[in-house]
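Summary for the steering committee. The consortium agreed at its last meeting that each partner would contribute one worked example illustrating the joint modelling workflow. Our contribution is presented below. We chose a case with several input lines so that the handling of multiple components could be demonstrated. No manual editing was applied between input and output; the record is shown as generated.
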Amino acid sequence: MMLRILLALILMAAPALAEEKVVAGLSQDNVSITATFDGTGILVFGAVKREAPAPTHAPLHVVIEVSGPPHAVTVRRKEKVLGIWINRDTIEVDSAPSFYAIAATAPLSEIVSETENLRHKISVDRLIRMVGAPDHISDAENFVEAVIRIRRDNGLYTDTGTSVQLTDETLFKTEFDLPSNLVEGDYSARIFLIRGTEVVDSFETAIAVRKVGLERWIYNLAHQRPLIYGLLSLAIAIAAGWLASAVFRVLRLN
Amino acid sequence: MQIYLPIAEVSVNAFLLLGLGGLVGILSGMFGVGGGFLMTPLLFFIGIPPAVAVATEANQIVASSFSGVLAHLKRKTVDLKMGTVLLIGGLIGAAIGVQVFRILKEMGQVELLVKLCYVVFLGVIGSLMFSESLRAIRRTRGAHHKAPPRRQHSWVHGLPFKMKFRTSGLYISAIPPLMVGALVGVLAAIMGVGGGFIMVPAMIYLLGMPTKVVIGTSLFQIIFVTGFTTLMHATTNYTVDMALAVLLLVGGVIGAQIGTRIGVKMKAEQLRILLAVLVLGVSIKLAMDLLLQPSELYSLGAGGH
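What follows is the complete predicted structure of the assembly.
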């Protein structure tokens, strides 16, 4: 009995000896969207913690990604019908991140196996989830590619390539740009330690992106008191129209 | 200076919005159109989500139309009686239009139908106005200065419920203006605009109102139609962006004042031919969008069924 427990303890401890752990932090874990918000930078940094000397069989790689709250997206494709380009095929993508940025120490395809990528949902095409496409659409993957392409063109999906700096297989850091068309929500930053195409350890932390001040007030009023908000908008419009008219009348008299 | 818009959730340049507002405001004051048919595509172009652009544009039109109508009221070029009759028709039409819009939406392809509506109406109105204005200019340039008989006696004058519209110098039945108002209301609700670009030619050609009165009267009824639209959007879709509206309308109200003054100095024929060119231009642009292969075949929309 004692022997068995001892054996179990040794078996459990054995991988722990070779284990590498990641500790990380962010330069800011909440982003405030003010009226003059024009994007911001976020620094992700950290270190690799290990009890034993670093394994030497394969080099260590670090992958860092930041992703925004996922939403469902409707993707439509235009087709030429009777000489006019109109929306025909439509696919509902069940979940796609509203923002995605990735950086690594080397190109992703070279450092991580496809199974590990799938398991940990590292690259953006693995994060996008589509349960089923309608039967008459045979090329559903083109719709997923379109989501990635359009969002990349809008600056919402970015790949900063090999911008992660890793020093002595221990210290790492990289910087992400959060664009000005950022949407409110809970963002997450994930860090993967990879050795020999396998994920050794990962770490996840949240970034809260929130509207503050006037932005918050207008947003809340619009959603909680829509009638008052609508009337207020009209009152501003009427007042501005009257004011401009009055100012021009005074200018003309002089 | 970049401004983050709280409802649209994008950051845009404040001066760009002021400039756009000013430009559309000038056109609004000159021609008595709300300018929605120009502003809405422009807002799409700078990256404002379509739903927010349509709703906020309505709010901005209220401001520039109000500014413009005050200038016209001082000049006594608003037929309040005619405006009220048109407005009653317009609100009835808008209520019908909202229902039509809902049915079309259930059938899908609402975007296509809206675009086709634009191309057809803008194209027809633009060409009619253009050719008519050209004829008018040629007549005034010609040696014999004989005014053609403008108001023919037609079936319109045989209708009951005759009313005196003193400012317009008309004594006609209330039924044609009510019908014009309703028709414009339906189209305005479907196309998401104030409807000035349909209303103005309809008043000139169908009702025979003098051009100078038409602009102020059109602005007068646009205020109410777009005000109603703003409230509908604010309470059902939450898509009115106050920050965007304020930036657009500051430019818009100033532009409308300038536009009104330009409009007064210009001859009616010149004014009409310019509006015709503008309307035709937008129509051709939209037709091109439908006929040419777009560079991106796919488009993204908000999810959820």
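Residues 162 and 173 of chain B are 4 Å apart (CA to CA). The two ends of chain B are 38 Å apart (CA to CA).
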